[in-house]
Sequence to fold (289 residues):
Amino acid sequence: MTSTQRTQETAVRDACRRTGLSTAGLEVIRQHATGVYLLPTERAVARVRPAAESAAARMLAELLRWLIGHGFPVVEPLAEPVEEPPYVVTLWSHYPQPTTPPPAGALGGILRELHCLPEPPVALPSYQPLASLTTSVKRSHTLETDECAWLVEMTDKLLYEYRQLDFPLGRGLIHGDAYPGNTLWDGEQVRLGDWDEVAVGPRELDLANTFQGVRYGRTAEEIQSFTDAYGHDPSPWPGLRTLVTMRDLHTLGSFIQRADTGDQAAAAELRHRLDTLRSGRPRAQWGRH
Fold:
């Protein structure tokens, strides 16, 4: 079998064979650019990413080992990344979730702990604002010409505003995609997962995502519990609106990619989000997926 014929599922099965994990009952959880598979008999999850991200996967594994050594509540990797061209497979503990998700306040406390850690001995990338969205827009064959033009103009405007900002919380290790949906129950403890966007950047970025959650029904009370647990409320800071709007645009990237593959539900949600953004409705409700 050549690498071009290999599927994500085949890569997972081969990676598990090499690491001694059983693939009995293998289930697909998600199958997009990053595939996610459940290994039920191992109580594990496999994530499949393009092989070009192998170095990033190894960096992340090193960082998570360091975080675990500091007692920080991350999702735990089960093995080193396994290269299965044209993919790299990472293997993680699986945390079955109850009906009620962790509260927003739990994330506030976790981020406070994260932002107080010393500098990690790992070469982390610098945060690149809206870089992935820019790539998605350039490659898209789904977006209309006027939509592309608006996104380019809006991205340029936000990047200019971003570069003028002063960040009271300073720069350091940030999760990069911290929002309550990336927290998981582990018994009575709450863990933080999905570290693919970890970087060095302004700490306010990790707070802005929870504020952007009003798009999905997050309440003022939930946001208050989040800022109380973190110990800082960025609401009075004039830069918060810029970061929240950047987050709005950032979320479009995955929908553009999925729409390009023919996913009609993703295309409909993409159009809805673009319509609300272009008409200036910062609290209009969006679908979660």
